[in-house]
Amino acid sequence: MMPGRCRIVIQHKVDSFDAQQNPVENWSNWQEMWAEKTALFGQEYYAAKAVGEEQTVIFKIRRQWSADQMNTVEYRLLYDGKAYDIKHIDHLPGHKWVKIRAIERPGIRW
């Protein structure tokens, strides 16, 4: 899979409760931005496959003030009609780019 520029949406988790006071997980759009998407290959791919995470992709975004707020629990990513759980956020040296390692959530379409 070739790397390429794409438009992504980052969502923030909003916890709420239903009528019976059961917790309900809702997501709201937080930011939309351009990213460069690449798939894992070589050693990274085989390491991910060993733990069942071969669907992992990497999105590289330009660092913004808001990127410092993201974490792997309260944020997720939407791309090409699919939801991705954020597994790792790597602030690259030079403070210009952020790499987001994410894995597709099966069965969740938007």
Secondary-structure blueprint:
Layout: E1 4-17, E2 23-39, H1 43-50, E3 56-62, E4 75-79, E5 82-91, E6 97-109
Antiparallel strand pairs: 1-2, 1-4, 2-3, 3-6, 4-5, 5-6
What does this structure look like?
By secondary structure, the chain is mainly β. It has one helix and six strands; from the N terminus they run ββαββββ. The protein has a six-stranded antiparallel barrel with strand order 1-2-3-6-5-4. A hairpin with a 5-residue loop joins strand 5 and strand 6. The protein is globular, with a radius of gyration of 15 Å.
Could you write a compact summary of the structure shown?
By secondary structure, this protein is mainly beta. It has one helix and six strands.
> Quick one: biggest sheet?
6 strands, antiparallel, barrel
Q: Tell me, rounded to a whole number, the average pLDDT.
A: 83
- Quote the distance from N terminus to C terminus: 23 Å
Given the structure, what is the number of helices?
A: 1
Q: Approximately how much beta-strand content do the residues carry?
A: over 45%
Based on the model shown, name its key terms.
mainly beta, 110 residues, 6-stranded antiparallel β-barrel, 1 helix
